[in-house]
Amino acid sequence: MSDDELMLEIQAGFLIEAKEMLDQTEDSFLALEKDPENRAVLETIFRCAHNLKGSGKAVGFESLSHFAHQIENLLVKLKLGEVAINPAIIDLLLKCNDQLKQNIEALTQDSGASLDNSELITLLEQAKDGNLVGESHSEDLAQLTSQNVEIKAHANEQRAHAMAQKAQAANQAPENDETVNKLVDSSVEPVAGLGAGAMGGTGAGAVGSAGASSTKKVTEEAIRIALPKIENLLNYLGEQVILQSTLEYAKHDIVKNQDLVIKTIGQLSKITYDLQHTAIALRMVSVKTIFSKMERVVRDTARELKKPIRFITSGETHELDKTILDAIMDPLVHMLRNAVDHGIEPEAERVANGKSAEGTVWLLAFQRGGSFFIEIRDDGRGLNRDRILEKAKKLGLVKPSAELTDKQIYDLIFLSGFSTHDVATSISGRGVGMDVVKTSITKLKGSTELTSEKGKGTTFLIKLPLTLAIFNGMIVRIGDEKYVVPNSEIEEAIKVKAADVRRLNDNEALITHSEQAIPLVDTLRLLSKGRKKKAVIGEKPDESHTVLITRTGDERYALVVDELITQQRIVHKNLGTEARSLPGVAGGTILGDGSVALILETAALVGIYKKAA
């Protein structure tokens, strides 16, 4: 391995470790704000800054190291008690943490990125001198939410700059270094794998050569996986190899070894099932990774609105597919900001209504059956039923004479463009963007339920699948083709006779099931472009048809299929660009006979039906 390749590998390891470290440090800042006297938390933050400074310099990230050094200098003052810990200081440290994350992201894309941290360094200098107090400085910090991290490839300039700094380093003694060294415990070490020993024999030459490859992306997205999960995967793979060897032996005389082949295939099916579960487990990550970020969202929103908020979380130890976890991040941010902004009343209003001055927002995660649930709840004023209905009528979304239940009225906030506020605030607007939230959750094959009680608060319950990669599905025949319907989208499968169908017109029909009228959906017509509309069920009274009962929101629909074939584990495959536009199709899979079947998305099919009806 060349020096350049070795340096890129070391830099990649540093950036992954640094990103994880900064996520943990954000939690520490929030804990320090709640308990400024907690020396252990302050020590943890200090060690992070010290490690970033030393390890960043070791791998050639001089600008990042310098910025971390300035943060460390302020932390020294805090540890010595020369600067008091107050909300303005915490604001600054959190902004610095954000900026370090942006630095890491920029360096991940380009190891020679030009990083501008000057504004925050100036504020750090002010804070170190005890001049960062009061609301005016907090407002200045609020303007730094989108710091510009310039990403420019200056390979030659970066290398020359790094070499010049290295040459001067021996003659320069940074401010507070002596004090810093006295305060650093012997347990403080550089980020794993980045000490002097990890540099091997590359020395200064390797650091200098980093600039030669500065335009390369130095790392890919990564997740930390517990070693037992890897060991389980290897164990199952080992068993699968043994069974494959058995089949290789048996194939030379299948008739003689028939019993052995049947037995081995049965064992192989079990191992494959276990292997699937183990592989899925590799994608599962703790929801604590986003719950900690949500605490920051609530904290910053509450400070901006000057509302005392208590944030309570539960279920952080549960795990969810990383793909789903990443996709749910933005909806959660929006809903929590809504809860703080428009859910929780101003302090004076709460006290006047006999409530505690401090509002409470809950973020809860739990698993029930084969689904994962996230609940966002507040003890605020609740939704204004009359105001929502009035605005919906004004917008023409509801007929003036319509009589709706409370739940139907509350669900209006999920409609595109609906809001009870004439002007959206900089924080949020309950209703503004809620259609995007629901759309995002629906794309994840999830659903959202909303309940609210005037004067007591509002609750959003999000239901999600545990993973999108592998799931149980029902293989059905519709027309001449086989399709897959996820089991999670099927309430039940029933037989319906033509005599039980009540037709409203040529295109709409209903069946009665469980004392409820359910619209009958001609699935074949929806899946066949250009197919003429026809009666859903044949004319023979005794002719029976299979229908799948599915639910979209609070409404149930009956999807007509020609045959239920079997159930099996389905491996989801993304479709090519030409097939992605197929109506009501979420993806594809390969069946046991080698044929390809499309995976249906029942919510999308219902949406098409409602537009066509």
Q: In oligomeric terms, what are we looking at?
A: single chain
CATH superfamily of the largest domain: HPT domain
User: How many strand elements?
Assistant: 18
Q: Main beta sheet, described?
A: 6 strands, mixed
Report the CATH architecture of the largest domain: Up-down Bundle
Distance between the termini: 65 Å
| Spans of at least 5 consecutive residues with low confidence | 134-219, 530-535
- Overall number of structural domains: 4
Helix percent reads 40-55%
Portion in beta strands: 15-25%
Rough outline: flat
> How many helices in DSSP terms?
19
Q: Tell me, what is the CATH class of the largest domain?
A: Mainly Alpha
Q: What structural class should be given to the helix and strand makeup?
A: alpha+beta
- Biggest sheet, strands in spatial order? 10-14-15-13-12-11
* Mean pLDDT reading: 78
Overall description:
There is one protein chain. By secondary structure, the protein is an alpha+beta fold. It has four domains: 3-213, Four Helix Bundle (Hemerythrin (Met), subunit A) (Up-down Bundle), CATH 1.20.120.160; 227-284; 287-465, Heat Shock Protein 90; 470-612, OB fold (Dihydrolipoamide Acetyltransferase, E2P) (Beta Barrel), CATH 2.40.50.180. 46% of the residues lie in helices and 19% in strands. The protein has 19 helices and 18 strands. It has helices at 3-34, 39-58, 62-80, 87-109, 118-128, 135-142, 155-169, 177-183, 203-209, 227-250, 258-283, 288-305, 322-343, 347-352, 385-394, 406-410, 434-443, 523-527, 602-612, and strands spanning 284-286, 309-314, 319-321, 359-368, 371-378, 447-453, 457-465, 470-478, 481-486, 492-497, 502-503, 509-513, 516-521, 544-552, 555-561, 563-571, 585-590, 596-600. It has a six-stranded mixed sheet. The protein has a five-stranded mixed sheet with strand order 2-4-5-7-6, covered by helices on one side. It has a five-stranded mixed sheet with strand order 16-8-9-18-17. Helix 1 runs antiparallel to helix 2 (39-58) and helix 1 packs across helix 9 (203-209). It starts with a helix and ends with a helix. Mean pLDDT is 78; it is low at 134-219 and 530-535.
